[in-house]
Amino acid sequence: MRKKFDQELEAVKENLAKMGLLCEQGIEMAIEYIEKPDQKLETSIAETEQEIDDMERQIESQCLKLFMREQPVASDLRAVSAAMRMISDLERIGDHAEDIAEVAKYLNEDGSPAGSMNELKEMSRAASVMVRNAVEAYAKKDLDLANQVAASDDVVDSYFEKIKRDIATQISENVESAQHGLDSLMVAKYLERIGDHSVNLAEWVRFMITGNKY
Predict the structure, then answer these.
(1) How many domains does the chain divide into?
(2) Domain containing 125 — which CATH number?
(3) How far is 207 from 122, CA to CA, in rounded Å?
(4) In terms of residue numbers, what domain contains 71?
(5) 71-120 pLDDT tens trace
């Protein structure tokens, strides 16, 4: 029975990794869509979000079965509980990637690229790395990597503050750019939220390993 439990818990880890990868792909496609709006890309973003939702339901079902299969020891309970919490944050990350693509439609209406595009790209990469490292920390039970994710949120936040200042300057110099700037700021805000959800992921990894989230 123990061997079976371990195998099924490993399957949960593998699916979490797949869900995390889908989130990364969603973020990447959403940022690409800002620069190069394309119907196929828009469809791919929506399909990826649906895959993320499907993975959430699949992992949730796997975790519930693990709870019912036998009386897990405390470390098992924490690992399964952490996975169930993490899929909620991953699902929200997928939602935010789709939100970015939705805002991109308005950014593309006048045919001009988003303000602070370079910073948005860098910010999206930093947020994606946080997602990847948090999921990897869960799979490897790596507390140092989980702590690194939490620390990386400062980088994402610093990008957000810089983008916010740049857009404020842009609007003050050209009031007609206000709507475009605010849409760009909304993209940055969604990326900042992705960073926050990644911190949540890391905190659940910490809970799994130590029994404490903070």
Answers:
(1) 1
(2) 1.20.58.220
(3) 30
(4) 1-210
(5) 678 889 999 999 999 999 999 999 999 999 999 888 766 555 566 888 99
